[in-house]
Amino acid sequence: MTSITIHGLEEPLDSLIREKARQQGISLNKAIKQLLAQSLGISPDIKENRHDFEDLCGTWSPEDLENFARNTQEFSSIDPKDWE
Questions:
Q1: What is the pLDDT of residue 72?
Q2: Cα(35)–Cα(20) distance, rounded to whole angstroms?
Q3: Rounded distance between C-alpha atoms, residue 6 and residue 83, angstroms
Q4: How far is 41 from 62, CA to CA, in rounded Å?
Q5: Alpha carbon distances (Å) from 26 to 1, 8, 17, 59, 77
Q6: Does the pLDDT of residue 46 top 60, yes or no?
Q7: Range 35-45 average pLDDT
């Protein structure tokens, strides 16, 4: 597998690529590879499979995460009395 470097990428294009990567939760490198493959017609839309089991495993909302962090905060500190 080879590597290439692209110099002088214009700001609007750079921003759009970075936003696409952020939205999909993938690396910048992976986003660029997907965009190149799609634009050249050598790859169908690449489906991310990481959400396939959400119905079985569930997901946390931001509120769930906040509740978990608040309810487990006491585990972050050590009480020296526990070790006596």
A1: 94
A2: 10
A3: 57
A4: 38
A5: 20, 23, 11, 19, 34
A6: no
A7: 82
> Residues 17, 35: contact at Cβ < 8 Å?
yes
- What's the sign of the alpha-carbon dihedral 24, 54, 74, 78? negative
DSSP state of 82: G
| Pair of tokens at residue 81 | 């009395």
What does each C-alpha distance from 72 to 8, 44, 57 come to in angstroms? 48, 44, 21
- Could you identify the residue written with the tokens 């020296």? 80
The Cα–Cα gap between 75 and 69 comes to 10
35, containing H or E segment: helix 28-40
Place of tokens 């110099």: 7
Q: What is the pLDDT of residue 44?
A: 60
Q: What is the pTM of this model?
A: 0.50
